[in-house]
Amino acid sequence: MKHKGLLIDVTKCIGCRACAVACAEANNLPQEESLQLSATHYTVVQGINNDQTFVRRLCMHCNQPTCVSACLVGAFTKMDTGAVLYDENKCIGCRYCMQACPFEVPRYEWGSLAPRVQKCRMCYERVEAGGQTACADACPTGATAFGDRDELIKEARKRIDENPGQYIDHIYGLTEAGGTSVMYLSNVPFGDLGLPTNLPAEPIPDLSWRVLSQIPKYTVTAGVVLFGIHWITSRRAEVARFEAEERKRSPERNTTHTGERPRR
Amino acid sequence: MKLPRLATLSFWKCVAAVLILIGVVAAVERYSMGLGATTHLVDTFPWGIWIGIDILVGVGIAAGGFTIAATVYIFNLERFRPILRPTILTAFLGYVLVICGLMADLGRPWAIWHAMIMWNPHSVMFEVAWCVMLYTTVLALEFSPVVLERFKLHRALKAVKAATIPLVILGVVLSTLHQSSLGSLFLIIPSRMHPLWYSNIIPFLFIISCVAAGLSMTIFESFLSSRAFGREIELPLLTDLARVVAVVLALFFTVRIQDLINRDALKYAFDGSYQSWMFLLEITLGVIVPFFLLIIRKVRTSKAGLFYSSTLVLLGFVAHRVNTAVTSMERWPDRTYFPSWQELGITMGLAAAGFAAFALIARYFDVFGEKTHNEEQHAPLRAVAMK
What we know:
The complex is a heterodimer. Chain A is α+β, with helices and mostly antiparallel strands. Chain A has eight helices and nine strands. Chain A folds into two domains: about 5-205, Alpha-Beta Plaits; about 215-255. Chain A is elongated and about 105 Å long. Helices cover about 70% and strands about 0% of the residues of chain B. Chain B has helices at about 10-35, 35-40, 50-60, 65-75, 85-105, 115, 125-150, 155-160, 165-185, 200-230, 235-260, 275-295, 295-300, 305-325, 340-365, 370-375, 380-385. The interface between A and B is large, with 57 and 57 residues.
């Protein structure tokens, strides 16, 4: 299956929260309003500039997700639909995913004695079955559009080109952190929307892999060097011991060293 | 200058007992009420002092283990042998406490064994987990001769002694990997950390600083042991270690400042923000002041001078780790963190438990190698220790 995605057009959003309501329903979450993502809010609608502009927040479903690379037990998987899913049966609860996610999306069930990480699942089952996400289904204005990521990029480009001056000439999520499945179009600066603007264009997992990939080389080299040093220094100690004994046995030979040394 | 007389020994025993008790109460609450009710951790601040102190500092102060083991076995500097065993014990206890701290911090601690069978080599946390497992095992084996001697298990003792060199080499490799990987954990968080602490050379900074901290811990521990067990202190050895600490501090300072200049981040050190003050505190009290103290011969060769300098290095080390894991993530006003009493209680309780465990083990086992080295001197020493 081609990687799917969501295109969120901030200029079309009217802040009706239909997406949040549909999301809660689709995921069996309590219907309560919130301005911040939480373990029971996979998506929220935030008002910006005195509610002149509205922006949805949800998991970005990165192309090369930081959480997938950060999780030591591999509890996160990038699925064939593009969704990034979490498996509570693997999770040990270290919360490195929460710390690592550049979009600060994964949320924790802090009140639970067996806490899970929670976040948007890009309606994996529905999409797998050929449908679209609940939020895109519910959106009355087309502010959230579902489709193949490739097609959404084309559509976004088209909207920017056909409406000069209406959009900032940038598709947020095209290259951010190596590209994401959820992308934004906006008429206000992306930083004002609360989206991080200081992200590298390279996939963030590369930052760790650059170091991690050196471990085998380091291990072998360090092992060999340490063994070598040990060999030399213990040989030296052995020689020193031998020479001290020699000196004790025959003090006159001490000055004219004959080069007779213990052999190994 | 005389060694400070920091109240009587029984006073410190009471303090340790109280701290451990508070820690136990905090642990009971944490396991019965969950992380949300007992910590000040939230979604936007998922790591607190259990990571910053229990894990990062616990592993750091254990660095004396690989340093001294390498000095004695790899570099064959036999005269450092008297401090080898207590340092290995300190390192081992450090790692045990790290695991205890981890059990408190993990949301699903019963699943910790997943790390053994569910592999993700792309995760720095995976490297960290394996280093903890393997190096704790290596430290246990490195310390095991003390236990095996005590129970006269000569065959096992012989086997362990035969494997000493490979064990030590493995220990050095694992330990350096582990120290650096704790720094590498933060490589993946460029956008969230303050530029005074985020750096792509953070793994190297972690290795350099842990050597200073590990050796300072050895000095610190020697003084406490000398006081608690009425032992004579190995002053010339500790002076040599102090010299190394001074050099390592200078190296750390140089690399740290050069890195800040390279990234054009030095300006943040003087911008008057909360982070800038924490940075200045960390680098002044923990690096600059102890460096200048230790290059003074009189300080380096006096008991009190060594004690105070090593304490400063350790405090500076704690500051560096806590600043990296906590301070650098804080943003006033919407992202701040101060630990709950349960978080502080478990951290302090574990630290106290570490000291208590060291004292107990030192009382019942030949940790200072006196039995093996000078059998005849042992009787009066034990008499002092039993007081």
